[in-house]
What we know:
The complex is a heterodimer of chains A (535) and B (533). With 535 residues, chain A is an alpha+beta fold. Chain A has 16 helices and 19 strands.
Amino acid sequence: xxxxxxxxxxxxxxxxxxxxxxxxxxxxxxxxxxxxxxxxxxxxxxxxxxxxxxxxxxxxxxxxxxxxxxxxxxxxxxxxxxxxxxxxxxxxxxxxxxxxxxxxxxxxxxxxxxxxxxxxxxxxxxxxxxxxxxxxxxxxxxxxxxxxxxxxxxxxxxxxxxxxxxxxxxxxxxxxxxxxxxxxxxxxxxxxxxxxxxxxxxxxxxxxxxxxxxxxxxxxxxxxxxxxxxxxxxxxxxxxxxxxxxxxxxxxxxxxxxxxxxxxxxxxxxxxxxxxxxxxxxxxxxxxxxxxxxxxxxxxxxxxxxxxxxxxxxxxxxxxxxxxxxxxxxxxxxxxxxxxxxxxxxxxxxxxxxxxxxxxxxxxxxxxxxxxxxxxxxxxxxxxxxxxxxxxxxxxxxxxxxxxxxxxxxxxxxxxxxxxxxxxxxxxxxxxxxxxxxxxxxxxxxxxxxxxxxxxxxxxxxxxxxxxxxxxxxxxxxxxxxxxxxxxxxxxxxxxxxxxxxxxxxxxxxxxxxxxxxxxxxxxxxxxxxxxxxx
Amino acid sequence: xxxxxxxxxxxxxxxxxxxxxxxxxxxxxxxxxxxxxxxxxxxxxxxxxxxxxxxxxxxxxxxxxxxxxxxxxxxxxxxxxxxxxxxxxxxxxxxxxxxxxxxxxxxxxxxxxxxxxxxxxxxxxxxxxxxxxxxxxxxxxxxxxxxxxxxxxxxxxxxxxxxxxxxxxxxxxxxxxxxxxxxxxxxxxxxxxxxxxxxxxxxxxxxxxxxxxxxxxxxxxxxxxxxxxxxxxxxxxxxxxxxxxxxxxxxxxxxxxxxxxxxxxxxxxxxxxxxxxxxxxxxxxxxxxxxxxxxxxxxxxxxxxxxxxxxxxxxxxxxxxxxxxxxxxxxxxxxxxxxxxxxxxxxxxxxxxxxxxxxxxxxxxxxxxxxxxxxxxxxxxxxxxxxxxxxxxxxxxxxxxxxxxxxxxxxxxxxxxxxxxxxxxxxxxxxxxxxxxxxxxxxxxxxxxxxxxxxxxxxxxxxxxxxxxxxxxxxxxxxxxxxxxxxxxxxxxxxxxxxxxxxxxxxxxxxxxxxxxxxxxxxxxxxxxxxxx
Lengths: 535, 533
């Protein structure tokens, strides 16, 4: 250790790496980010192409959803990971538009790289990008082309959600959007705040996507325990504790001296169980929903009283069922008090193509919980549809906060590009170049849309600009330009966040001039590559 | 073969000039890494941990802590800088730069055959003069919000991008002002720094009240309340095991039921007492009760409380038990007996927010602000960490000012002044020690020079300009990082902590002296020798 002299490398622990300067750190970072965004770029839009991702557990994903691709890719490069983080944040904050974040960030960095190569100092690019990003933020709301006026109007919601679903499962968007809209309306019509918790998505294999359906109430993928499979107008009690003779917290031992005592002991147990069931029955309860286990003996008495028993293992699911039924979960043994009892119009165990489910329906009043049952032939399609529905629901959540929409189909991006480029000309300094490039970045969206639909990407932009209308975008079906603002609208907040996050991450990457990496720590390598066999 | 190797054949050893070179290269190497960090226009460093965690920072202290330095000399310097951070909370980068520069200047003289001891003496003399200069330069000002804002701004500006620095400046200043009580020393622990991975970093705010990082565990409790009494207690509301190994014997189910009932009774009684208190103070009004318990609350008790509309939070942090009475008033109670209204605190609004799996509880509109919370928001882990480190330093800077009741002009002005004054004084130093003092005077200019360099300015030009301006006018002048012009830091509000500069003058030369006086480095210690190599 005393031998090597000079440089930071010699000061650090063995195995640590150190990169610094524009060439070594910044351009390498940019390169990695660019690579990442090229991966998802072609997945944009309704005609986007699917990616097949096999993750470290050898699970297979076939999807166009950038959030999923990002999550499963297991990115190691630190700068590229920044983009992944930004994408994840977009996913948690608004739920949709992850691809937009990744593509914009990648493009912003690509443009920055070109500028650096022409000799611009990174700090000038940073100021230019900062300026431009502020400018875009300020003009974005003026691009609004549509405002949703009534949050309980199904047709309006369908209009807003269709483009979201169309970009993931093209061809089924109108049916799926209707299902989601229905669910959204169900949970909000009673005036309660929209909470994603209240819309459940259940996947049942079999059938086709068109059979996807929305239920008022809950669908639990599990049959009833006993022989009672169907109850109408049921009073339901929810128990969140095991329904069997409870153990005390202190250690207890049964002390038995004679055979008679042994006999009496189990008899006593039975009596307690019987009393419990009779009390429950007397309270008028016809259906029990249980979070814990139920002993054989209690089950036996419940059967005798023909009380239907449904077990739910997840405590969150149990809470939802309780909320939907208007019940309070009981945590002690004994009959529920009237306030704790909930109500369902119908509880039934059914079979949907060989999957046994229990459906809690509550038609009469608002049920507060809605369930969308996805039907499709393969696991992959179901997973992909679920992600699409998830995005749609998240979008609805943001819609409840802000009802403004911008024109979709690349129209909004083309307009932003145009305006930012005009704005660039008003900047006298060196940062003008950066602002100009920032504008150009947005052209990638209409271009990609055209590309994936088979049109020539180079012709599209001049055509859109020629129309001089902020509503004109790319019609993917015909590969031409058209005013699509009646059908394709994008949520403003989604765009706003995506642009903000993308410019944020690009700026962060541009601000880094040194990277110091510790030696990768040991431990089992979870990401070991499977051995590829020759064939 | 050196003597040591007769004693221990495995020993490694470097001596004399070689040993000095070793120290010199380490000091310069470390300086090279940190120099681009200094000042508001310094660049970011990206640190990647062993497991791939990412950290972005401009803060010298964080960088040194995370860098895994192995070189012995470099580690020593890093430790000195970290010590600086622990004592005053700022100035780590300056420290490393100064040590590096002192070594670099010393190298020149050493090359000419000057004995290190002579230089060391010179450093000592120079340091004494520098400290005198510090006394004359320090500006004693009345501590008001504006002054504190300026100090916080100067400290935070070097760690964050301008927009965030501006925002945090107000937050940290107001936080410290809120908790400071006249006649009492400031306990920064009473400012909780809470982070939520949520929204953007610009949503960071100061909560005049408390934010707890857990929530009620009962689904039925309300998530929003107005006008609440707060009971802050340390009462066990769940089954307690006996200290001795105990066990029940029963021979039939009935007996067991009884046992269970009595087992619960003790806890139930405590819960009843709380409920009784709630009924006494809240019934018939629109007020509600929040119980914040340091110990546990079991599901049955939670259920009982929830039925009465009482929000119960369990397993609060020890520190929060101090902070709640400070903010909300009332006392922290340890027993459910004799609860009175006087024991209760007050919060105007209560809100529970769920983010994914994490819950956060906000208690706001509290009667006092002697404890408050800085709520850091950020889009991802590294942003939050960056903010957290900055907030910590900002708080320290503000607190230091209140303690010192004085500030020092920043923007490199102090260093320029010390250098110029030293060069004047040097004439009065007799003998060879003068060489060391001259080296000191040159070395301290590293700070303004680096500031200018990092801003993309011509450092020579800027430096000469500053020196001549100071010599002409005799008032401290600093560098404007935006255009390189000379400015008056006091007028511009670029102010540094007095104690930071003091500490900086104390620590760096001492360490440089120690390093210079090393003439043998050997690795033969019991713990150090074996293993690697």
